[in-house]
Write a structure and sequence with these properties.
single chain, alpha/beta, FAD/NAD(P)-binding domain, Enolase-like, domain 1, 3 domains, five-stranded parallel beta sheet, 10 helices, about 30% strand, binds flavin-adenine dinucleotide
């Protein structure tokens, strides 16, 4: 029976275990994860978990489920090498485990700023340990400085503000979330956070980091020194590709896979945040729960010998203070889009089109109904009439192709 070994116990691997059993795999499944936890929901870490000292991790599936599905879990174990010729992986302890199909689901890690490792008041936010440390640290400070105006930095900034901390966000780009959202949304989010009392600097360059006794004390930003109590680095993530690189697998901002999630070694698949996958003639890497889950479903099919190429339409969400933003599709760079108003200025969607009139992305603010329909419209390559779709009186479902 085919032995499937999964490295990394996160969103993608939890879904893979489920999909393998749903799709009829009866052989052994072993899940090896470096963190001491079963796969848990990572998105709450920056939203609810850091705010609530009593909050616990939310497992994606209970321990009993893995037992009932015959999934062997090896938690708190780091995989340090892949021996491709022997079809074995090696744990940090030196133990080797054999496989017939190996799935790399190693995720991504938070990028660091050079020279800050070991500083007592500098924290990252990627996993449960980071979030627990941050939740503890924030209790003892009045002021938090967040480097990076991306999703995680802003979610954490909003959480810290709700906890009553003075919050400063330092972003080097001229607008927030510049790579992921439209200028309309960047501006809306900027105003929302400023109205909540968050101090946001754009076009901001950190020219010097001053420290004393193992703590960062000051940042010099655009020529001005700013005091630091707690510094949170939210400058993005990079894929965990080390194992793949050492095993000689091709990597290009992620482990290179085909549309079936196969690496160049047919016995090794890769899924989730760690992959660089083909899309529209280019390579892409996404960091989202949707991508992790849908790639896991594709990989399960591949492992079962079926050809079901990955073509899922991306979607994403973020929660920042009072705002829930949901995005269907990928927003074209700097697209102005067409606004579809909602019941108040804080409820609306912005729709984005390709040159040929196809709806390619929709950003929905506090409008979950729009978002659910937008996912269908984007997947269906709808070509709606611009004037009509901007009219909130016309239901979005009318634009679904027949
Ligand atoms: P991960 O969930 O990161 O799991 C990878 C696992 O592999 C980790 O546990 C890691 O320790 C382990 N691992 C790595 N190397 C090894 C090794 N050598 N040996 C053993 N184990 C190893 N996405 C959304 O869509 N919406 C959101 O609102 C959202 N919010 C987020 C908030 C935060 C704070 C973070 C950090 C992420 C958020 N994301 C969000 C992104 C989402 O969580 C990721 O896209 C998702 O977790 C990716 O799943 P994955 O299985 O690929 O990787």
């Amino acid at each position: 029976m085919t032995r499937i070994l999964i490295v990394g116990a996160g969103h993608a691997s939890a879904q893979l275990c489920a999909s393998l059993r749903e799709q009829g795999h009866e052989g052994p499944i072993t899940l090896v994860g470096e963190e001491p936890h079963l796969p848990y929901h990572r998105p709450p870490l920056s939203k609810t978990f850091v705010k609530d000292p009593e909050a616990e991790l939310t497992p994606i599936r209970a321990a009993a489920w893995y037992a009932s599905q015959g999934v062997a879990t090896r938690l708190g174990e780091r995989v340090v090498a892949i021996h491709r010729d022997d079809r074995e992986i090696e744990l940090a302890s030196g133990e080797r485990i054999g496989y017939d199909v190996l799935v790399l689901a190693t995720g991504a890690r938070a990028k660091r700023l050079p020279g800050l490792d070991g500083m007592a008041n500098v924290l990252l936010l990627r996993d449960a340990a980071d979030a627990s440390a941050l939740r503890e640290a924030i209790r003892g400070v009045e002021r938090v400085t967040v480097v990076g105006g991306g999703f995680i930095g802003l979610e954490f900034a909003a959480s810290a503000r709700i906890l009553g901390r003075a919050v400063r966000v330092i972003e080097m780009a001229p607008r927030l979330l510049a790579r992921a959202v439209s200028p309309t949304l960047s501006e809306y989010i900027l105003q929302l956070h400023r109205a909540a009392g968050i101090d946001i600097a754009l076009d901001a360059r950190i020219e010097e980091i001053r420290s004393r006794d193992g703590r960062v004390t000051e940042l010099v930003v655009n020529g001005r020194p700013e005091p630091v109590e707690l510094l949170v680095i939210g400058i993005g993530a990079e894929p965990n590709i080390d194992l793949a690189v050492c095993a000689g697998l091709a990597c290009d901002n992620g482990i290179v896979v085909d549309e079936h999630m196969r690496t160049e070694d047919p016995a090794i698949l890769a899924i989730g945040d760690c992959t660089s996958f083909p899309r529209d003639g280019a390579r892409m890497r996404l960091e989202s729960v949707q991508n992790a889950n849908d790639q896991a479903r594709t990989a399960a099919a591949t492992a079962m010998g079926r050809e079901e190429p990955y073509g899922a339409s991306p979607w994403f969400w973020t929660e920042q203070g009072t705002m829930r933003l949901q995005i269907a599709g990928l927003v074209p760079p700097d697209s102005a889009g067409v606004k579809r108003p909602g019941k108040s200025p804080d409820h609306f969607s912005v729709l984005h089109f390709a040159d040929d009139g196809r709806l390619v992305a929709v950003e929905s603010v506090n409008s979950p109904g729009d978002h659910m329909m937008a996912r269908k419209l984007v997947s269906a390559d709808a070509r709606p009439d611009l004037a009509r779709i901007a009219d909130p009186a016309v239901p979005l479902k009318e634009f679904l192709p027949a």
